[in-house]
Amino acid sequence: MSTITNHMPTAELQALDAAHHMHPFSANGELGRKGARVITRAKGVYLTDSEGEEILDGMAGLWCVNVGYGRDELADVAARQMRELPYYNTFFQTTHVPAIALADKIANLAPGDLNHVFFAAGGSEANDTNIRLVRTYWATKGKPEKSIIISRKNAYHGSSIGSASLGGMAAMHAQGGIPIPDIHHINQPNWWAEGGDTTPEEFGLARARELEEAIEELGEDRVAAFIAEPVQGAGGVIVAPDTYWPEIQRICDKYDILLIADEVICGFGRTGNWFGSQTVGIKPHIMTIAKGLSSGYAPIGGSIVCDEVAEVIGSGDFNHGYTYSGHPVAAAVALENLRILEEEDIIGHVQNVAAPYLKEKWEELVDHPLVGEARIVGMMASIALTPNKATRAKFASEPGTIGNICRDRCFANNLIMRHVGDRLIISPPLILTPADIDEMFVRIRRSLDEAHTEILEKGLMREAS
Ligand SMILES: *Cc1c(COP(=O)(O)O)cnc(C)c1O
User: Residue 148: left if φ>0, alpha if ψ -120 to 50, beta else—which one?
Assistant: First the structure.
């Protein structure tokens, strides 16, 4: 057997990691000097590191381990599928049972006439597929000039060239020559940071109407689609005001453009329904899926496509696909994961047990001196940190400084909670119990208190002018 070197001392593992492993979304020089934490095992909602520390995973990996760690059924299914048929493609007039069964299952779970699945190995690839799908759809209908996709600033749709172009992350667009042509970004519905003197309701409407203004300005005959996450995840768990989504749906109905819901985080129970689109009340033509589809146990994603789009695409050749589209092992694992979600009624657990209790505790965080707002939908939540709650002021320090101090305190207290700028976010496994939630809040409160002391001592509790 090949050697998995987790028997080595932590410092040696960290040195090898620094020497040879380039981490995603990291300053690798600095990380290498500091040393990355080595995660060796996981069970339920807890990770174990190479020093034996038990860490409560408030992020479910990267928003993906919905059923929690250590599910033997998923390992067994993977091993069985590897023995039976480890790989075969579906390019050239062949198919296989895992891809058939998974596509059928997803079509049954998805609302409306979202009945067709194009598989990818993750969310970025699936969103690249979506760019090609919607442009090919309109070209096939004799409207090749309908190629612009409207997206939102601070959206996250992946990290390939296409999906990062759809995304609206300024730091990503600053590197590597993106966005690609014909992607247009409107503003996000982030009332806390950008709402000024308007009410959340007014602001939600105004931000939704930017879609209509963009369509009018660019021309309906030029716009192919609008893409959005039902709840922005990596952008900081931004929950739109209640007025936003109905207005977006009205605009999408009025104009002849396709609506793509990026459900990579929101899908498979995260918001308390199978899909985030159901939670916010929209009817997309295409959904992007990944992450919770397999609870992260195998890399798989895809696009769920409505009848009309699938029919038009199917009328000719679609010159697109990935070696690992519908990979049999990943598909078998995803299918078993969906069985677990369904048979154990994990979404019922979210709706009736975990999310209501988490919401109660989460919203109490606004009593903390650092916390301005607390937002939560199902099992994804955020708090905004501020030096002045009344005015929703930003900190005078470089954005992210305060968030990073808080995050480091959480990490030291064995809690994974991420920061996005000066917001803190969680997205825990859906199987979280009330006892897990109590333990999580002991660690959150301790971390926030320590961070507050540190921020005061360093003179950082100051407002930007
Ligand atoms: C993570 C994510 C993606 C990208 O998925 P990968 O599997 O990392 O390629 C796309 N969209 C959203 C909303 C995501 O959160």
Answer: beta
Cβ atoms 209, 189 nearer than 8 A: no
Question: How many angstroms separate the alpha carbon of residue 7 from the centre of ligand 1?
Answer: 32
Ligand 1 mean position to 291 CA, how many Å?
7
pLDDT digits (tens, 9 = 90+) for 188-202: 999 999 999 999 999
Atom number in ligand 1 closest to CA 234: 15
Q: How far is CA 249 from CA 27, 131, 192, 281, in A?
A: 40, 20, 23, 9
Closest residue CA from atom 5 of ligand 1 = 123
* CATH 3.40.50.720 correct for 73-343: no
pLDDT at 279 over 90: yes
User: Measuring CA to CA, how many Å separate 329 from each of 80, 145, 338, 340?
Assistant: 9, 39, 14, 17
Do 37-67+345-457 and 73-343 agree at the fold level?
A: no
pTM flag (> 0.85): yes
Which residues, 6 or more positions from 118, have their beta carbon under 8 angstroms from its beta carbon?
A: 126, 129, 133, 302, 303, 305, 325
CA of 122 to the centre of ligand 1 (A): 7
Domain ranges in the chain are: 37-67+345-457, 73-343
Q: Which residues pair with 228 in a beta bridge?
A: 261
pLDDT for residue 5 = 55
Tell me: pLDDT of 465 over 90. Answer: no
Which residues lie with the beta carbon below 6 Å from any ligand 1 atom? 63, 122-124, 127, 156-158, 229, 233-234, 262, 264-265, 290, 301
Neighbouring-strand partners of residue 289: 302
Confidence of residue 3 (pLDDT cuts 50, 70, 90): low
| Closest ligand 1 atom, residue 64 Cα | 1
Q: What is the pLDDT of residue 228?
A: 98
Pairwise CA distance, residues 212 & 441, whole Å: 42
Atom of ligand 1 nearest to the CA of 163: 10
- List pLDDT tens digits, range 312-353: 999 999 999 999 999 999 999 999 999 999 999 999 999 999
> What is the distance in A from the centroid of ligand 1 to the CA of 241?
23
Closest-lying ligand 1 atom to the alpha carbon of residue 263: 13
Q: Which fold has domain 37-67+345-457?
A: Aspartate Aminotransferase, domain 1 (3.90.1150)
Q: Measure 364 CA to ligand 1 centroid, in angstroms.
A: 30
